[in-house]
Specification:
2 copies of one chain form a homodimer. Chain A is an alpha+beta fold and 783 residues long. Helix content of chain A is 30%, strand content 26%. In chain A, a hairpin with a 2-residue loop joins strand 15 and strand 16. In chain A, helix 5 crosses helix 8. The radius of gyration of chain A is 27 Å and the shape is globular. The model of chain A has no long low-confidence stretch (mean pLDDT 95). Chains A and B meet through helix 12 of A and helix 12 of B.
Amino acid sequence: MISHPAYDAGRWQLVENRLDLGVLPQSESLFALGNGHLGWRGTLDEGEPHGIPGSYLGGVHEELPLPVRESGYGDPECAETLVNVVNGKLLRLFVDDEPFDVRLGTLHHHRRWLDLRRGLLHRSTDWTSPAGSRVVVRSTRLVSLTQRALAAVAYEVEAVHRETQVAVQSELVANEPLPAPDPHDPRAPQHLDRPLEPVEHAADGGRLRLLHRTRRSGLLVAAAAGHRVSGPKGCSVHGGAEEDVARCTVVARLGSGRRLRIVKTVAYAWSGMRSAASLRDEAEAALAAGQHTGWQGLAEEQRRYLDAFWARADVELEGDEEIQHAVRFGLFHLLQAAARAEEQPIGAKGLTGPGYGGHCFWDTEAFVLPVLTYTAPEAAAASLRWRHRTLDRALERAKQLQLRGAAFPWRTISGRECSAYWPAGTAAFHVNAAVADAAVRYAQVTGDAGFERAAGVELLTHVARLWMALGHHGRDGAFHIDGVTGPDEYSAVADDNTYTNLMAQANLRAAALAVRRYPAEAAALGADEAERRAWLTAADRMAVPYNAELGVHEQSAGFTRHAPWDFAATGPDGYPLMLHHPYFDLYRSQVVKQADLVLALFLRDSAFTPQQKARDFAYYEPITVRDSSLSACVQSVVAADVGHLDLAFDYLGESAEMDLEDLQHNTRDGLHLAALAGVWLALVAGFGGLRRHGGHLAFAPRLPASLTRLAYHVTAFQRRLRIEATPREATYTLLSGPRLEIRHYGHPLTLERGVPRVRAIPPLRPRHPPAQPPGRAPRRKEP
Amino acid sequence: MISHPAYDAGRWQLVENRLDLGVLPQSESLFALGNGHLGWRGTLDEGEPHGIPGSYLGGVHEELPLPVRESGYGDPECAETLVNVVNGKLLRLFVDDEPFDVRLGTLHHHRRWLDLRRGLLHRSTDWTSPAGSRVVVRSTRLVSLTQRALAAVAYEVEAVHRETQVAVQSELVANEPLPAPDPHDPRAPQHLDRPLEPVEHAADGGRLRLLHRTRRSGLLVAAAAGHRVSGPKGCSVHGGAEEDVARCTVVARLGSGRRLRIVKTVAYAWSGMRSAASLRDEAEAALAAGQHTGWQGLAEEQRRYLDAFWARADVELEGDEEIQHAVRFGLFHLLQAAARAEEQPIGAKGLTGPGYGGHCFWDTEAFVLPVLTYTAPEAAAASLRWRHRTLDRALERAKQLQLRGAAFPWRTISGRECSAYWPAGTAAFHVNAAVADAAVRYAQVTGDAGFERAAGVELLTHVARLWMALGHHGRDGAFHIDGVTGPDEYSAVADDNTYTNLMAQANLRAAALAVRRYPAEAAALGADEAERRAWLTAADRMAVPYNAELGVHEQSAGFTRHAPWDFAATGPDGYPLMLHHPYFDLYRSQVVKQADLVLALFLRDSAFTPQQKARDFAYYEPITVRDSSLSACVQSVVAADVGHLDLAFDYLGESAEMDLEDLQHNTRDGLHLAALAGVWLALVAGFGGLRRHGGHLAFAPRLPASLTRLAYHVTAFQRRLRIEATPREATYTLLSGPRLEIRHYGHPLTLERGVPRVRAIPPLRPRHPPAQPPGRAPRRKEP
């Protein structure tokens, strides 16, 4: 189980058994609630103590200038960062004449638990004030998955052993001070000082409202709150507001064993376009709707929504409780990040914290969307529509870079490039491959022709044009894409990155298919037969660097000729390498931060023979240090594919522990969504062996020794399937939809609805797994 | 002649015939005076109008923070920038009740001329005020080459046609406002806002003093001024001082034809170590010494100093007056930048302007020191001693970068790395090659064993260790230096840059020789026989990328495989490319900013056969755009070497015009010292054919059609030589020192003092010169 004594993981819940202030910021991330539109970090109700306060609205960002010193042409001049908007969570409590603060007095009991089936965060606290007044505080918090503007808190305080006067100040607070970031960690968030300009404030009894505007980006943000109070007679409710705080104060005198209960409903609205008056109305309307539904109604909607999700998405397993918990925890947070993001980006941390400035990277398309495509396809579609909506900026960026087609940004909120370091930003053109590939995957798996026609063909055409502009036909007859950066951030600006080239090859072929399938749309885009043929020629001639002497593919041209990294001289404190070594030293050495060539073995698996995959995996394992949270899950999938099942299981364990064990030491800044997605990928694509081959779902499940059963659900081709694997056999069940042909270890198998089909899993010849760099092997996963 | 009508170049002077406010900032650079310790830009005496005010003391810098956003390990956190210190040039004139300002009233005549033989800047102005008072102002300014702390101005005002009251305010001014730089040009200087904190100010009649401290770097700067006034009776002198200004006001009533003459002597002192009291005394003492010498005495000392210099250094030629002027203008400014720099850096712009922050780059060792070594060896030695003095910082930097040996900074004032963009900064390790090579050249040419023992062997050992740490022995048996940046800034972070590798090879061999020659020093450095052998092995196995198919050397591994640059799509407004194209696009294309492989053909000429040189030059010419001022001169030298004499002459012309024609559009920010040195290099190493081969001076002179005679002087092996070439023959004369063996076209020739030896120049088979990129051919030089 999770090693930190504060946490405890059940099959359907994450529990915090005691309050450890050392892990408070991590808890705030783990217990964050959200729906993709609105995110509340898991701060204590009373606001203090806290790690990093955080309330976010997807897309609400502030601009900040980038330094121009020694800038180059095309460097972005301005970046964006997610704004901590109005905090609506706060309910400050005074017990008799003292503030309720768990650092003072005596904390008899503290427990919080996140219920993954109900989508509720519960808290229960038993506390005696320094002056001896004892209260029990219980709260339940939700961010609604059904009414996207809404969050609510049911808050209850009970006097335990004597008559106690309690005062609750339920607040909306803007411009909270934030802790200073670590200037030496490039991953650390950059906090803004007072990003919100006050526009309007109002309070009327229990109804509160604040309206602010971000200073540079000029986005209006409205927050409204309403309160339903039930308590003893004589309980008073007063409202008041100033520029940055609106407050509803409830005072009650509680006899021993009596309770005060407050249901606080909070609604948000924001826009960069609409007026203050319309936003104020929007927030008030959402609040009215939420209060009409009521606490009980919101909780019931939430449960129904999640029941439907788990029926589509659940992964069950036997043999490891921690992994069982982790995959559900991960799916829950992916849903929270994406469910209602709609036409806003899904950031690398979702809305769980300020890390990476709230930016969306390729992680979303390459790691998160594969999961959503099979489990919550409408959320995947919305995310792809967001990308498509930013196409104008990507076209403009490509033009600025003297390219053709679309160049999507390495990191962004609004669609513009926000990367200040181009060798690991702009040059990482593979983000475009991920976008195109996600669009192809989504369209193929869902059969959503409307999306393909309205967005897919356009995305694919522009990405294909980008590759044509980036690459060139060399004297050797091959098509080369030079000077780009692949997924491995310990190499950069290299020629013919194999992952990038193979993904570009797939993009070009998909684009060629798409323009043939949608000729009218293609014509409107000016994509003619000559262009289509040029794409196919480039794809066919794509350079794939291979070192014949070693018999392995090169991560990029010349990579295997580079000096080996001196692992012997790198102690355990030397990781992550990027915080201890300059980039130039990493770039010129054979050391890999994260799966790059190995990611190609997964995503372009049909481009390699099984023997090549095994050899390549064996070559890259001993030089891959996994200083990125994106790596372990990919290594798990490929290890499973090439037959190193125990190693795959260890990597799965590492992915599962990423945030629960804070392996990257920055869970405080938010959860690693891609790693959470990785748990699903390792189980479903790894041990579950799910692939798409020739338009079919193909399965090749095989369990590691530690698992006795794995069952998962996928939604594809408008059907729902359940796949269950035991050590010896696999059972395929079509839960809904018409007959479907699939593949089991390459053999066709036709499924009829409701009729389980059982197939034997072929035996595996055990082989010796490759070693990792000294000290960098994944922890042996003990189930 | 120079195309701008304001300028006129004589054989020994640069003349400004009329005042064109459009080229005022350029004039300030061209007419800058300095001695390497102190630099005064050629601002008008009265301070306004001005382009960029500038008074500099070599080494007086301020620190400024570098952005940390997305920084990497080892990025410098702080940069340095040359400070505009106290302006001592100012003499503001009031004529009757109006300020003398050439933009008002009527300017009848304006002339300034820089006398290269005397080291004086003269000015003569005839002006009528708006109210009709006419005055002639004459001034002569010098920055002393013999008393390094001193500058002086002899200022004279004459009433022309009626009695006129004149007031002269002679000032010391600190914290002058500076114009805002262009944020889009990375070469533009970054100005500081009020970098000087006042410490002390004083005035006593004609004696003025200001003492300031730089805010962050904490350097104390003292300036003192004294005045000798001669004028009509009743002329009054008053002094006054405030924090940032000290002023001596002289008022006189001049009858028609009468003059007021003021000799202002200004002395500076600075230190980061010593006290305010001692600095105050130092400035006062320097001032007293200067006043004791007197104006006439200073001017005479200056003349004697320059006579000696020109006797050692002059280059005479027949056939092109403009080149004749340019080479003297260049030598004069090199001397001004270096003569008394002593243990401070020689910046890329000397002390002529704020460009590049006043930083010293590899230009100094690779371009400036070769000239100084043969013409002002004591200045070359001082500059190398400055580098050696920064060795501790270079050792520390190497350690920080996890390397061994010394890693000298790409750009610096105090010795610390100030480059904010590592791919074109830290990764350009070839700066270390330039340092080592300059030390070897200096020691070999001067025979200065004291330097070699005290500094040379240590520099060489640490640079050799750096190469050993940077490189590795590959599976192919070769020694590779991967992921570094060569001179061409349109490529970066490439493997086996040929220039770098060949220079490293030479460094390693020189280091091996040095430790054998100085065994005690080597032992103290821990350099044993095993290490020495390792250096020689690495040197012998050094990788030199060669494309056998094309029969040319590669600038770096894989370079010739890259896509060609689309020159057809690049219009004349598209240059310099770096201001119109992102680096990634330049880096992955076959386009060269500045001589890189071609520089290796010059500096490592014996590593190539004549045929290889010709082929390589022919390959790189059509892809070299010369967006750097460092390129034309190198191309000139190599063009001459491979027999394209007219092309070499055109490139010489471009080097000569760099600042006089403002070819880079930034002469306003200071002169391009390396290009000025390049004129000498193109004449002496190019047409003069000077090389060092096997410890001998080797000559292979050959003139282009436009020149009928070229004569130059070099100082080497404690001897002075004169080499004179005509189209058919070369004459070698040993002017001082004992018998010397040289080479003429490879044949030994022994010179006895005072006995000219004449040798025929072998005929050249004419061949067709290579083309340059469209629109990028050097302007045809019309003599």
